[in-house]
Amino acid sequence: MTLVPGIKLGPYEILSALGAGGMGEVYRARDTRLGRDVAVKVLPGHLSADPAVRARFEREARTISSLNHPHICTLYDVGREGDTDYLVMELVEGETLAARLARGPLAVAELLRTGAEIADALDRAHRAGVVHRDLKPGNVMLTRSGAKLMDFGLARATGPTGSSGSGASIGPLTQSPTVAPPLTAEGAIVGTFHYMAPEQLEGREADERSDLWAMGCLLYEMATGRRAFDGKSQASLIAGIMGGEPVPILQVAPVAPPALDRVVRACLAKDPADRLQSAHDVKLQLSWIVEGGSAADAPRPAVTRRRGREALAWLVAAAGLGVAAAALLLARRPAPDAPSVHAFLGPPPGVLFSSSTDQPLPLAISPDGTRIAFCARNGEGPDLLWVRSLGAQDARAIPGTEGAEGPFFSPDGRSLGFFAKGKLKRVDVAGGPVITLTEGLDPRGGSWNEGGVILFTAGSSGPVSRIAADGGAVSAATALDAERGESTHRYPHFLPDGRHFLYLARRAGAGAGESPTIYAGELGSSERRPVVEVASNVAYASGHLIYVRGEVLVAQRFDSRSLRVTGPAVPLVDDVRMDERFSRGVFAVSTNGVLVCMTGSNQTRTQLRWLDRTGKPLGGVGEPADYTYGGTPHLSPDGTSAVMPIANRDRGVSDVWIIDVVSGRRRKLTVDTVDHPAALWLPGGRSVVVSTNTPSAGGSLDVMQFDGTKATLLTGVDFLWPESAAGDRLLYSWSEDDRGAGSIFLASLSGEHPPQPFADTPADEGSAQLSPDGRFAAYVSDETARPEIFVASLAQPGGRWQVSQSGGVEPRWNRNGRELFYVDLENHFVSVDVELGASGFQTGDARPLFQWHGAGGLWRYDVAPDGSRFLVTTALERDLASPVTLITNWTRKLEQR
């Protein structure tokens, strides 16, 4: 439809024609309401003919209109006048990049500035979930204020009508994507061929990485004045894109920065997973080239950038981190003579590293060394799995990974395995559905091979298990050696052949002095070979084993065929973060010479703190300490003292301490050499019950007096956990199998009655709390597929009530017997009024009090006797904000020693 000056489309008066193309005609118009000139684009008639397409177009247009960015042409309005659909956009004065390129390549400074502006615009749109799908020189306007990206995201919404067959249809080379096959057609190709990524040519859905391919084509063309891919025919063009490589930039434009050629090649990788993974990455690389000037390829100190206290993004050490480091990170394998670069990566602003358990902070790196995965939380939100491209200043959380811990990459780097809330799961790095593979876990590490086998350790005790990456039956991959007293095989790590693997074998509660050993095992075989005696997780890369010895990260040469170490262990990083209780250090290494780790004190160092009923901090109690997994503060009946276990890092065990909550002074109650992971104050306030875990004798519950004398109350399996006591009754829990499903039992403190099951079902049950009068017990069960709070009567068999409705953990009673507290799955403290009647139990409405994130994702707390405040454990923020240490080409450090 051709319009003449003076015609009105709604409030817009047409002034003159500006141009025409596959998207329709474009006119200069006057907005009669606001008195400003705008561009009006009249769309092809197929939008009017198909109501579904028009509705979809309007939805996407609304999304695009929210992209308020200086380098994106603003979409003001979408309208319809009679049978005419139109867009109203910002009127951009200037020339297209296509017109500029017709005069030849851009100067380097102009190229880098324009490229960074386009990348910045793409990054803004991608963050809003909008993909351009047709990035090309004709859709970039060059103005006095910089580049403006046009037709953003509308290519998908404006395909013409046609049959909806599933085969891909290809038009002339000059055809606009807006006249490509219909947007509803499966496998349809949408895009301009010279700038289309291989996956688009194959008819697959375009995503952000497809825009990055087109970005590489634009950068190449701006540098050389010629297209990256061209052909005399449609077939030859497509063949070039699918299987060919463009002539290196430096051969066509020798004055171009060498680093630019590497950035372009990283954008033009055939496999989307091998490209730079975000437009922000591209912008950052171009900015580094600008900062580097003529020495863009030489190592040099980088400028430190800070956004508040948390923004330790790329704080560079003496070795420097500039474009050379970025090039190393983008390369598949660094050159042998490339420098080893040492740098630090902080969490994104406002984000803290965290772990959903008391284990060390999880950290993983992709096999190609381009991305790291870690667990973190934003504010008081849940722990999520985050992915960060090395070279970028930000990271993104993967939705659906709440409670994540222990991530590990698939061999191709496209997927992540991880554990969350007792389940083994997997998810694509780019996001998507989260798939549960198995459940009932208290995990200790995982590894994934190219044959689609995942190895993992299901619990604190037991062998390494195996499962297919697509799910299925779980089977044992190792067997414990009873003669050596082994209780756990953990932290499996596949070797390059995908058949052999490494793992740590140790005894329960064993620390560094118990001769734990790294073994090499083989899938489908019971044979194993001892490799090195050390209490650490282990990784293999570049012909070396990487592990922690004495809080120093070391490398030792290893023959992956003979499965033997040779030569001495060489120090790499001092003071690496290590938790001897779990025999686990925080480090990861790629196959191409990139190593990441964390240094400093262990994340489990926490502070006791009082909070009032609104969550307001009322002050700390004593000095920070390594309060352990069982480190729930239990207040004495008079509220003046708390009993808690504190980790002994030298021996890898825990001791029980009595803490004066007024003065903060503490004294150790247990003075032996075995593990005491939990403790509980007994009625009367004159003794405590302590969990004792002895590798050779199993677990027990012991009643201890303040003078150190003790009497054994119960014996049984490892890790008997005292939960609550009232009157003569004691509730305790223990895990009945290696997969972590717990049960609750009721015992008599006087020993007059044998223990009886209280909650003993296939579900995982724990955190049992007796009511002040001892007639009811609140506890947690996951029988509904998520943890919920239940209350059961001890006097009336069958009396049982569900208190929480949307998930809950860690119930606690107000000592007045009229209120029950718990923490919901959104980290809110919740209060529920209750009535403990003679005929049963009744609840009132649940009231969220405040949001709070417990130390290590664990909500450990107790309630003051008057119910006015809570004694909680909180992680030290300075530990959670500690940066990740990054070393590229770390083998050079070995050569320098």
State the low-pLDDT regions, or none. 155-191, 293-333, 509-513
Fourth-level CATH superfamily of the largest domain: TolB, C-terminal domain
Assign the structural class, choosing from mainly alpha, mainly beta, alpha/beta, alpha+beta, or little secondary structure. Answer: mainly beta
Any idea what the CATH architecture of the largest domain is? 6 Propeller
Q: What's the CATH C level of the largest domain?
A: Mainly Beta
Average the pLDDT over all residues and give the rounded result.
79
For this structure, the CATH topology of the largest domain is Neuraminidase
Describe the secondary-structure layout.
Blueprint: E1 8-9, E2 12-21, E3 24-31, E4 36-42, H1 46-49, H2 51-65, E5 75-81, E6 84-90, E7 95-96, H3 97-101, H4 108-127, E8 140-143, E9 146-149, H5 198-201, H6 208-224, H7 234-243, H8 249-252, H9 258-267, H10 279-292, E10 315-316, H11 323-330, E11 342-345, E12 351-353, E13 363-365, E14 371-378, E15 384-389, E16 396-397, E17 404-409, E18 415-420, E19 423-428, E20 435-439, E21 446-448, E22 453-457, E23 464-468, E24 475-476, E25 488-494, E26 500-506, E27 517-522, E28 528-533, E29 538-541, E30 544-549, E31 552-559, E32 564-573, E33 578-579, E34 584-585, E35 587-589, E36 594-597, E37 606-612, E38 617-625, E39 634-635, E40 641-648, E41 653-660, E42 666-668, E43 679-681, E44 687-694, E45 698-705, E46 710-716, E47 721-726, E48 729-735, E49 742-748, E50 756-759, E51 765-770, E52 776-781, E53 788-793, E54 800-802, E55 809-813, E56 819-823, E57 828-837, E58 840-851, E59 861-863, E60 869-875, H12 877-880, E61 884-888, H13 891-895
Antiparallel strand pairs: 1-2, 2-3, 3-4, 4-6, 5-6, 7-8, 8-9, 10-11, 11-61, 12-14, 13-14, 14-15, 15-16, 17-18, 18-19, 19-20, 21-22, 22-23, 23-24, 25-26, 26-27, 27-28, 29-30, 30-31, 31-32, 33-34, 35-36, 36-61, 37-38, 37-60, 39-40, 40-41, 41-42, 43-44, 44-45, 45-46, 47-48, 48-49, 49-50, 51-52, ...
